[in-house]
Specification:
418 residues, alpha/beta, Carbamate kinase, VC0802-like, 2 domains, eight-stranded mixed β-sheet, 14 helices, 20 strands, binds aspartic acid, binds magnesium ion
Length: 418
């Protein structure tokens, strides 16, 4: 069971969480719980680091930010004990959860779960702080923002859990953001692949990396709400959204439990910025010169368009980077102006990326064209397009985000009946 920051925000909410955990254990299950820091706490800790030293050492940053989860894991164990359950916490370094050394963005390598399993078998509820691990040189690491989801999946894999229930402040994965489209529907199930695409294009339910890990380790993941009333169905009845393999999805469709649909979800992301380099020489090596320095600075480039060369052997290159990296990207490119040989850099952070995702589009033609038509019918201009086997993304003006999401939700027949 994993509980996010909103569910852990304060002793009152931790008591609710403890009750949910106790009820699960009372069904005869051995339970490990992974927790986030209280909502807002990690941001607060990050700010302390910035104030202390703007060029902070990531190893010390990890020491500071990992503390939020240490507090909530101890508090949950205490609260469970107050409810009469046997429980103890296991900090990342105590298990340990071995990670690579990349501070602030470490990856889990392995988890020593023997002692943990023995304690669970002896009837103790294990509480594990998410987000944190231990590097080979014996220092505390953290897994990147939102990393507790990944901790939960990694622990579930290590103890071969029957299921990894991710309790959060929404009751599942929706066809789109319900704050934008009131008729958005909760999905009973989505496939790993779809969830991976949805997470990476802005649906903020799960950390992208946790989905990749779940897919690789075949961990059964359920997303469900921790804000549930007395008579709510237990997690074992799968009230949330299950993340399943393609095969399991086929079975659900055959049994009539899921409808076969072309598009599973529509996501939006306002956190990217557009960069245009004009009059780049149209010759081999030109784009490599642009993207190598960005890659070396760990700046993730997403959509890329290189126009057909115009006369004089020149072309424009357009791409997107995370807004938070825009200033750095711009400075890096300016520094290499001579080498790359462009004329101007034009940037725009008032853009949004809208993506439609669905495994159904693997075997269907026309999904992209109906997207383009639906947007053009509302006068929404498409500035760039990128696709994968199960996803189409377009870049549009940020002001048109909500309209685009609504129009597409209707166009693909996803609106819930009244
Ligand atoms: N507390 C960490 C964060 O806010 C990790 C998590 O909650 O998933 O990013
Ligand atoms: Mg989260």
């Amino acid at each position: 069971m994993k509980f996010g920051g909103t569910s852990m925000a304060g002793t009152e909410r931790i008591r609710r969480v403890a009750n949910i955990v106790r009820a699960q254990a009372a069904r005869g299950d051995q339970v490990a719980v992974v927790v986030s820091a209280m909502a807002g706490e990690t941001d607060r800790l990050v700010n302390f680091c910035r104030e202390a030293n703007p060029l902070y050492d990531p190893a010390e940053y990890d020491v500071v930010v990992a503390s939020g989860e240490q507090v909530t894991s101890g508090l949950l164990a205490l609260t469970l004990q107050a409810l009469g359950c046997k429980s103890r916490s296991w900090l990342g370094w105590q298990l340990p959860i071995h990670t690579i050394e990349a501070h602030a963005k470490a990856r889990v390598e392995s988890i020593d779960a023997e002692a943990l399993i023995a304690s669970m078998e002896a009837g103790e509820i294990a509480v594990i702080p998410g987000f944190q691990g231990l590097s080979e040189d014996n220092r505390v690491t953290t897994l990147g923002r939102g990393g507790s989801d990944t901790s939960a999946v990694a622990v579930a894999a290590a103890i071969k859990a029957d299921r990894c229930d991710i309790y959060t402040d929404v009751d599942g994965v929706y066809t789109t953001d319900p704050r934008i489209v009131a008729k958005a529907k909760k999905q009973k199930a989505v496939t790993y692949e779809e969830m991976l695409e949805l997470a990476s294009v802005g649906a903020k339910v799960l950390q992208t990396r946790s989905v990749g890990l779940a897919m690789k380790e075949k961990v059964r993941v359920q997303v469900l709400s921790s804000f549930i009333g007395e008579g709510a169905p237990p997690a074992d009845e799968l009230p949330g959204t299950m993340i399943v393999s393609d095969e399991e999805m086929d079975e659900l469709v055959e049994k009539g439990l899921m409808e076969r649909q072309l598009v599973t979800g529509i996501a939006h992301d306002k956190n990217e910025a557009k960069v245009i380099l004009t009059r780049v020489p149209d010759r081999p090596g030109a784009v490599a010169n642009i993207f190598e320095p960005l890659a070396a600075a760990s700046i993730n480039v997403d959509m890329i368009i290189q126009n057909v060369g115009r006369d004089k052997g020149e072309t424009d290159v357009t791409f997107t980077v995370p807004q938070s990296d825009l200033a750095r990207a711009q400075a890096l490119l300016e520094d290499r102006r001579g080498e790359i040989g462009f004329n101007r850099i034009i940037t725009d952070s008032k853009i949004a990326k809208i993506s439609v995702v669905g495994v159904g589009m693997k075997s269907h033609a026309g999904v992209a064209s109906s997207m383009f038509r639906a947007l053009s019918d509302r006068g929404i201009n498409i500035q760039a397009i990128s696709t994968s086997e199960i996803k189409i993304s377009v870049m549009i003006d940020e002001d048109e985000t909500e309209l685009a999401v609504r129009v597409l939700h209707t166009a693909y027949g996803l609106d819930a009946a009244d």
